[in-house]
Amino acid sequence: NKLHGKAIEYDPSGAKISETTYRMGVKDGDAELFHRNGKTAIRLTFKNNLREGPSYQYYPTGQIYKEVEFLKDQKEGVEKTYFTDGRLNSVYPYKGGELEGKAEHWNESGQLIFEAEYKKGKQHGKFMKYYDSGKPKLEQHFIDGKLNGVKKSYDQEGNITETFFENGVKAIW
Prior knowledge:
By secondary structure, the protein is mainly beta. Helix content is 0%, strand content 65%. The protein has a 19-stranded antiparallel beta sheet that branches.
């Protein structure tokens, strides 16, 4: 006996937990998970047991929290997260399930507080953290996931502490 069609799961109190479409015992089609309040928590699609296509996560209020595309169960394209009011919180680019490109994160005021570059899932290039004011907090450079070059740490007044790294190892002068 293999599941075929829509399977609905309930918790002991009778609240719906999930709805998943099966074809011959394999997840194939739409799937939806629910918050305790009955609103959608996650909505995605499966193809032959693998996540395929757009995936959405929601706050209990029903507002979108996260969206990302899947291709053969791997993230593909830009994953976006949102604040409860719908404004953009972060973007993380994926290719073949690995981070690839420039990731950015903003605070609730809309100020950029983090940016990093990735290549094949590893940090590669510039990495920056900012105070909520927008002033720099940390500046680093990576090559193939390893710290390389001058790491600059800034205090709130803008004073800099510099440390040099080579191939991920702190250099001692």
